[in-house]
Write a structure and sequence with these properties.
The structure is a homodimer of 142-residue chains.
Chain A (H helix, E strand, L loop, with lengths): L4 H14 L4 H8 L2 H11 L3 E2 H5 L6 H13 L3 E6 L2 E6 L2 H11 L2 H17 L21
Antiparallel strand pairs in A: 1-3, 2-3
Helix pairs in contact in A: 2-5
The structure holds a DNA duplex (30 and 30 nucleotides).
Chain lengths: 142, 142
DNA sequence: CCCGTAATTAACCTTTTCATTAAATATCTG
DNA sequence: CAGATATTTAATGAAAAGGTTAATTACGGG
């Protein structure tokens, strides 16, 4: 049942094709720490607006506006149940953004390979990285 | 140490550690189509400011400002040779952005798996997949 | 029905962004 | 040096972003 990489690629292309979200909106939406934190929270699951707003010192309307931005970028959808509105992460546009970045992957890898040999050659004198392991996973930026 | 993953991972962490760029600046910089186009051009290689500006209708100072934004985000560096300034793509911050997005990968893959089964069931006949993965009451265990 | 809660909208303010044109700086060249 | 070229800085302005408080809409429950 696992979906292979090709399958994913297909799906991504499919979605990009049908996506109404512009990269402008998606990247701009990601350009605010509060909004990234909201997405991080939503990655844990559907959350109500009030709960989403609780951790912040800013007012509820401010959070509401951030949610509108995220919604406009297609990153968040809302579901109303009674007077409560539940927000969910909608990851497809993130995938579009990731795709854009991935387009340059071969370029950077060339760069990184070059840097790698540089580091190999200068191993004696180059500064050592203190904690090289889990950084990528701790990106949970608030 | 734990450089066990890949050489690249090591390098990326190294760079992240020494990077002065915030995700805010990087994602915001990417939130403008002109700037993304500039980066795309720079991915082909070092380019002078004037050449970079040529394809656009906007004035040279406008492009210059975009370059300043990209430079502030750490995405572009400049090299002066005589009166000409050559710009280069600096991909490390893009990597940081990609890492941020990748943090949610497991979440989306669950989504995409759901969509994949949808697509399997509906073949190619349906040209409107947009909300096929309506996540209303989806579980979260991540 | 009234009241409290959930959330948005309205009105407003300040700061930032994105663009412009004109002037300045720096450099190459005849 | 004079003049052309490459690029930035300055001054300016409109629009968007991000925040506030107050008012409003919409429900739910005694």
């Amino acid at each position: 049942m696992a979906v292979d990489k090709t399958r994913h690629r297909y799906i991504v292309n499919h979605m990009v094709k049908y996506s109404i979200n512009s990269l402008d909106a998606v990247f701009s939406a990601l350009g605010d720490g509060t909004r990234r934190a909201i997405l991080a929270r939503l990655a844990e699951g559907e959350t109500r607006v009030t709960d989403l707003a609780a951790p912040y010192e800013m007012s509820l309307p401010a959070v509401s506006k951030h949610l509108r931005v995220l919604e406009a970028a297609g990153l968040v959808t809302k579901r109303k149940q009674g007077r409560v509105i539940y927000c969910s992460l909608q990851p497809q546009p993130l995938m579009g953004a990731a795709d854009w970045i991935a387009f340059y992957r071969s370029f950077w890898e060339r760069k990184f390979d070059a840097l790698a040999s540089y580091l190999d050659k200068t191993a004696d004198t180059s500064p050592k990285p203190a904690n090289a392991d889990d950084q990528g996973k701790e990106q949970n930026d608030g």
